[in-house]
Amino acid sequence: xxxxxxxxxxxxxxxxxxxxxxxxxxxxxxxxxxxxxxxxxxxxxxxxxxxxxxxxxxxxxxxxxxxxxxxxxxxxxxxxxxxxxxxxxxxxxxxxxxxxxxxxxxxxxxxxxxxxxxxxxxxxxxxxxxxxxxxxxxxxxxxxxxxxxxxxxxxxxxxxxxxxxxxxxxxxxxxxxxxxxxxxxxxxxxxxxxxxxxxxxxxxxxxxxxxxxxxxxxxxxxxxxxxxxxxxxxxxxxxxxxxxxxxxxxxxxxxxxxxxxxxxxxxxxxxxxxxxxxxxxxxxxxxxxxxxxxxxxxxxxxxxxxxxxxxxxxxxxxxxxxxxxxxxxxxxxxxxxxxxxxxxxxxxxxxxxxxxxxxxxxxxxxxxxxxxxxxxxxxxxxxxxxxxxxxxxxxxxxxxxxxxxxxxxxxxxxxxxxxxxxxxxxxxxxxxxxxxxxxxxxxxxxxxxxxxxxxxxxxxxxxxxxxxxxxxxxxxxxxxxxxxxxxxxxxxxxxxxxxxxxxxxxxxxxxxxxxxxxxxxxxxxxxxxxxxxxxxxxxxxxxxxxxxxxxxxxxxxxxxxxxxxxxxxxxxxxxxxxxxxxxxxxxxxxxxxxxxxxxxxxxxxxxxxxxxxxxxxxxxxxxxxxxxxxxxxxxxxxxxxxxxxxxxxxxxxxxxxxx
Length: 659
Ligand code: ADP
Description:
The strands form 5 sheets. A 5-stranded antiparallel beta sheet has the order 2-1-7-6-5, sandwiched between helices. A 5-stranded mixed beta sheet has the order 13-15-16-18-17, covered by helices on one side. A hairpin with a 2-residue loop joins strand 15 and strand 16 (573-580). The chain has 3 domains: 1-106 and 262-378, no CATH class; 109-260, Serine Threonine Protein Phosphatase 5, Tetratricopeptide repeat (Alpha Horseshoe); 495-646, Histidine kinase-like ATPase, C-terminal domain (Heat Shock Protein 90). It is rod-shaped. The longest helix has 76 residues, at 3-78. By secondary structure, it is an alpha+beta fold. It contains 17 helices and 18 strands. Helix content is 54%, strand content 16%. Adenosine-5'-diphosphate binds next to helix 15, helix 16 and helix 17. Adenosine-5'-diphosphate is lined by residues 548, 552-553, 556, 580, 582-585, 593, 599-600, 602-603, 610-616, 639.
């Protein structure tokens, strides 16, 4: 291929690479835009889900609250409360001028006010006791109390028993004191010093065990006291509860019951009570709802007035989560959203508030009239769908890009090849023109001389005729060769196969070639096997192959005037080798010289005439005979072309030396 022939493909390659890069960049940009749009779309879809979930939640909570308000109205009218879940963390109360009613019973661990006013301060029984018994020996005091201790009035009896027990303790009679506290405990809710006797007895027993330093008994009693307090069975006030709870907590650190939710409920009820008492003109206020924040947790409070009566509802966060929102959870989960309730001033009630980047949908308390601000935000799972879709899109883009690049590479290669062939063809046309021009010029000049009669002698004339014949014969062969090449390319070469002796054909071809040679003449040394080499072949086609090889051997060995032609049997093949000691062929060209229009670099540089179709034709003909043609060559040392033809097994064949 000429250097010019290389330039065009290089330009094409650069343009093609540019187009490919442009295509890849466009694809990348499109993919990126697609991803962005996808993300935007997903953002919209997630926002829609949040909005719907937020609206549903608000509607659900509003429904529940309305239902509670309806229940409260019923309580005010009928005086009976609807059934409350036994284990739930909620309570219904009704405040009347005559007292408090609570549903379910024993839900409150303390009450805002007791039905009866306390007789004395709660700490009475632990304070330094009655004035008249301030002496070292308490026996007299104890004896003096024996009579009231047997009284039929439980209050008198309880007060006496407390004093006896305390004085026994001071007197060092611990067992006696404990026994007395046991008697006191049996009086149960009878108030003594503003507290139920049962609780006073347990607190007193703790003092006795403390004096005894009986740690096991202390813990046991403290736990029992705590259980008593949490059971809500005792009519006590907040002060008493906290005092006793602190006392129990001092000796039993790990209390079995978690008092927080119940204390929160009691605190909430106390707040309602205060409100009931504070609202003088109850006709102007029908009721309300709020989220009340206590040290033990947030409490929902709903209340309703009717005259001077109030019905209230208090519920902890667990109640909201398990009773009100539990049936909404599957829906929220399926939408990939989570919920957080906060008080209007931002303190958490339920669920943890989302981070700054969560973009929650918010329903403010002021807009919804709910006692909470509702926040709905997407869970991280909902982003997962986008991530997997993005992965799929990127993979698709990569596959598309790979397809485009592969396709581009194939197209580029084909274009490059076509261009190379086109370049070779144009080289071929100029080579053929060149081949024609030289003999035609000779023919023109000789015929001109003969026409004008400018020939000196008869001998010269004869010589001119000879030359005219040779040149026109050369032209004929050239034209025939081109015609044959055309037929071969079109697959229309009419082969006439017959069984013949290849050795005879080789000898005859050499002889004819030698005869047709122009000066300087090359010598052919032919060596053939003695026995006939039978092949099934078209003699004309094979002669064409041999002539090409002989011509090349002569053309490309300007410094050696001998060409060796050898024929031998090689297994199941007849091998005809044409050897010269010419310019040789570089290894990089040895495969390509058999392709059409391809000429070797040495041939082009040394201006040896040729068209680049001889070896292509030779290979096509030999392969049509079931054989092959190979080359062994070393630049500067010469080349050997070998034609391999299968041995014919037919019996009858032509041995005619002269064709
Ligand atoms: P051309 O008309 O150029 O001879 P061919 O098809 O016959 O075309 O040969 C192709 C190329 O192979 C030649 O251009 C030449 O470079 C190389 N070639 C063929 N025969 C020989 C040889 N005997 N010695 C060196 N080079 C050869």
